[in-house]
Write a structure and sequence with these properties.
Distance between the termini of chain B: 29 Å
Strand content of chain B: 15-25%
Number of strands of chain A: 21
Strand order of the largest sheet of chain B: 3-2-4-7-1-8-11-10-9
Number of strands of chain B: 11
Mean pLDDT of chain A: 95
Structural class of chain B: alpha/beta
Radius of gyration of chain A: 22 Å
Radius of gyration of chain B: 19 Å
Oligomer: heterodimer
Mean pLDDT of chain B: 96
Low-confidence stretches of chain B: none
Number of helices of chain A: 13
Chain lengths: ~450, ~400
């Protein structure tokens, strides 16, 4: 019985900004080896990207959230500095409340550590790694900063197993850090010192492995140059690197390259995750696991649009009030917000959304049976809320993102005749008759609390 | 059950009035209402009052009723605030009719007031959204215009309605409003103007949307026992109908009609013992152009799906077979949310009593007022009748 990786999911945002766009804006681009990088949309963050990747991992493994015994979430950029992310991620995926949960943070090797510890555990584990680092606009780390997520379904009888592992730590302060209360990654940029802080711990860890030879090397990539300053095989690194197209995906860097290695069919992959400070986790994976991923992005942003997405050049939420849904009320509706759970009337089989109050068809006050609508549906009515026309609670999002669609979308329900219609925001807009997919997104932030739900993207 | 009659109705000018308050606007409406009573009335004779207001801006959300009735000297009169979004004062009129018919009151004042133009753009957008379904519909990011735009998209898809047909509503209502000295946007426009206006929420553009407005309107409803004291030409409340529906559009069975309007109209027609073909004119709720087109179908003015060609035919112009919104409607006359329903009654009263000035119809006998709350969560329909003219038509 070989415990290891059963399936992988990977996700990156659709938005891309090019190195040329930075060069035009700044006269230079300080992230060598990065040609484009992925940019989270205004309502995306580590949580929403992680859920997307996790959905894909479950799909690739033909599993559902109910089968998960252990849930791990790793990121250096949690939406809130303190709050258990696994509760919301688990809610989206319908992971049982009694599943073991762990958070990994504070280092770009957090994703690799989460994966190894899940493999060391038992039962079915889901490891979700997502990151979207940021820096000051003129900082080299910001120029490199990308976004992405990968998730691993871990269990017994796995097609991909870890056959060797090693770790190394050495005190190397100042190369990359984020101060308390800051959103920006910084560094002192001490040329040779910085390079050594990256390469020497990596070489030490890899040197501790019994056999580090591999067709592909999933190596931490703070930019597109540093990985090649190590003594590791440059062709094997280049074979599965993602930094040139996605940028620095921090904790998700090695997981995304591992996904790429599986997708490319490399039977033996060396994974080397580095975290500043510095520490390294290295391991060898033999075999490949099925991957469901889409790492392409076709929404190219110019530099001003990029700054808008980041929120650098937009105002704060306007005064004048905003729709208030108290947190306890919001919490009661999370099965609907996260999974669109609806109610099947036991008397007439009509479907109610939200599943409360009288049945919309027979008007009886009943205890609805829970049904989960499909995530793909059809638009029955739609419009576009143009720039500047959004309600106050969505004004900041619109300033960052632009016009968005709002629609009434009809979803079918597996194994039932019924359908359910929901109001949804559609990224970029939609027309009647379009098919859409419901995706996790941040709805808004009120009283400091991010509220998450499902929005839609057209298929 | 006693009959109820409208013996007076009046409104403030609709528009944007930085120097007015909700109380002063209400006062103007009451003064104009009192002045419209043929034989005069002492406000001390008012037994009961109903005031519709949403409270846009958060002004006097508690006890707005006494805040305005005490201001105009109706000291001690029982007053009830009625909140049904844009249908607030349509329902206030219905409450007054019920009070009179039941025998609880002989003279009841019904009306509404709203001040909307002294808020920032963001505050207005917030307040315009409070009548939508808050937990789901609003959280999708939609606006009030956005919900009606979704209805327009469904109507266009189902019935082939065009943007040009929507624009005919604006052209017609502005033509009427240009003859109404009380109108907020009392100018006329061309079809080209209306078709080419900037989008608000596609497919609805600026000319397909009513303005936000300051204003007040009131009406005096009296019983058959006292009506002769106030007028020799009474306007009878021939039929009243009202209905509600799910607040969120997504929760309804249809997105291209307003079932509550249809149901309310059926009740009003049945009580008045008439059909839509008997009407001489109507004031319908045209907060957005698609709302007027849906009203044509919901109220039975034309077949389902035929509203676009119907407006295009000119049937609802002031010289058409069934003039609609001779006042200019919400589009041109304006839409001070809490006052709108009562304001429609003012126009019906003026038309039935020959006070409509340049837009006066030729001795109409039966007029209808149709007032909708939100995107159709509430609707109320009244049929008003000049009994003398109606009986003449029957005799003829």
């Amino acid at each position: 019985m070989s415990r290891g990786i059963l399936a992988v999911g990977a996700y990156t945002p659709e938005n891309r900004v090019t190195a040329e766009a930075f060069e035009e804006a700044w006269g230079r681009f300080d992230a060598p080896g990065v040609e484009t990088k992925a940019v989270p949309d205004a309502d995306e963050d580590a949580l929403t990207m992680g859920v997307q990747a996790a959905r894909r991992a479950l799909s690739a493994g033909d599993a559902d959230g109910g089968a998960v015994d252990r849930l791990a979430v790793a990121t250096t950029t949690p939406p809130l500095e303190e709050e258990d992310l696994t509760a919301r991620v688990g809610s989206y995926l319908n992971v049982p409340a009694d599943a073991v949960r762990r958070i990994y943070a504070g280092s770009t090797r957090a994703g690799a550590d989460a994966l190894l510890e899940a493999i060391d555990g038992d039962g079915t584990a889901l490891v979700v790694v997502a990151d979207c680092p940021e820096g000051e606009p003129d900082d080299s780390r910001e120029h490199a900063a990308g976004a992405g997520a990968a998730a691993f379904l871990v269990g017994d009888d796995a097609p991909a197993v870890v056959t060797d592992r090693a770790a190394h730590a050495d005190v190397r302060p100042g190369t990359r850090f984020r101060q308390h209360g800051s959103e920006n990654v910084e560094g002192l940029d001490i040329g040779t010192y910085d390079r050594a802080a990256f390469t020497e711990p990596i070489e030490a860890a890899v040197g501790s492995l019994e056999d580090a030879d591999a067709e592909a090397i999933a190596l931490q990539a703070p930019n597109g140059k540093l990985p090649y300053r190590t003594s590791l095989d440059t062709e094997a690194i280049a074979a599965v690197e993602t930094v040139s197209s996605l940028g620095d995906t921090a904790a998700a860097s090695v997981p995304l390259s591992l996904a790429e290695s599986f997708r490319a069919g490399h039977d033996r992959t060396l994974a080397v995750a580095w975290g500043s400070g510095a520490g390294v986790t290295a391991f060898v994976v033999e075999g490949t696991a099925p991957v469901e991923a889409s790492l392409d992005g076709d929404q190219e942003l110019d530099y001003p649009a990029y700054l808008r997405r980041r929120g650098d050049i937009v105002g704060e939420k306007p005064d004048g009030g905003a729709a208030h849904v108290p947190v306890p009320t919001w919490r009661r509706s999370l099965p609907q917000r996260h999974r669109h759970e609806a109610g099947l009337c036991p008397e007439c089989a009509a479907v109610a959304f939200p599943p409360e109050g009288a049945c919309p068809d027979c008007l009886s006050l009943v205890e609805f049976e829970t049904v989960e609508p499909q995530l793909e549906g059809v638009v029955d009515a739609a419009t576009t809320i143009g720039q500047g026309g959004a309600p106050p609670e969505f004004a900041e999002q619109q300033a960052r993102q632009g016009a968005f669609g709002v629609a009434i979308v009809r979803f079918g329900i597996d194994d039932e005749d019924g359908e359910v219609s929901l109001p949804m925001q559609v990224a970029g807009g939609a027309s009647v008759g379009d098919r859409i997919r419901a995706v996790p997104r941040r709805v808004y932030v009120e009283e400091g609390v991010p509220r998450y739900g499902l929005k839609a993207v057209t298929l | 059950m006693r009959d109820a009659y409208v013996v007076g109705a009046g409104q403030s000018k609709y528009g944007s009035f930085p120097d007015e308050s909700y109380r002063s606007l209400f006062q103007t409406a009451v003064e104009n209402t009192v002045d419209s009573v043929d034989h005069g009335i002492d406000t001390a004779e008012i037994d009961e009052a109903y005031v519709g207001t949403l409270g846009v801006g958060g002004r006097q959300l508690g006890l707005p009723g006494p805040a305005v009735t005490e201001h105009v000297g109706l000291h001690g009169v029982p007053v009830t605030r009625v909140e049904n979004a844009c249908a607030a004062s349509g329902y206030a009129v219905r409450q007054a009719v019920m009070a009179v018919r039941s025998g609880m009151a002989d003279v009841a004042l019904a009306g509404g007031v709203e001040v909307m133009t002294d808020l920032s753009g963001d505050a207005v957008r917030y307040w315009l959204g409070v009548s939508g379904e808050t937990e789901w519909e609003r959280m999708s990011g939609t606006t009030f215009a956005g919900v009606y735009a979704q209805m327009a998209s469904a109507h266009m898809r189902e019935h082939g309605t065009t943007k040009e047909q929507l624009s005919h509503v604006a052209v017609k209502n502005h033509a009427n409003g240009s003859k109404n000295p009380k109108a907020h946007l009392g100018f006329s426009c061309t079809l080209e103007d209306a078709v080419n206006a900037p989008d608000v929420a596609e497919p609805l553009n600026l000319y397909h949307c009513c303005p936000t407005t300051d204003g007040a309107a009131t009406a005096l409803i009296v019983s058959e026992d006292v009506v002769d004291e106030y007028t020799d030409d009474p306007v009878r409340v021939a039929g009243v109908g009202a209905a509600s529906d799910r607040v969120g559009l997504f929760q309804r069975d249809t997105y291209n009609s307003v079932p509550a309007s249809e149901k309310a109209a059926e009740s009003a027609y049945e009580e008045a013992d008439i059909g839509p073909d008997d009407l001489d004119f109507a004031e319908v709720h045209d907060c957005f152009a698609i709302a007027e087109l849906m009203a044509y179908e919901d109220l039975g003015f034309c077949e389902r799906g035929e509203a676009g060609p119907y407006v295009e035919s000119g049937a609802t112009r002031i010289d058409g077979e069934l003039p609609v919104n001779t006042s200019g409607g919400l589009k041109s006359k304006g839409h001070p949310i809490g006052a709108t329903g009562a304001g429609q009654v003012v126009e019906v009263f003026d038309q039935l009593t020959g006070r409509a000035g340049e837009r006066q119809l030729d001795e109409p006998a039966l007029g209808l007022a149709h007032n909708v709350g939100g995107s159709g969560g509430a609707a109320v329909v009244h049929v008003f009748e000049r009994e003398d003219r109606a009986s003449e038509e029957v005799d003829a």
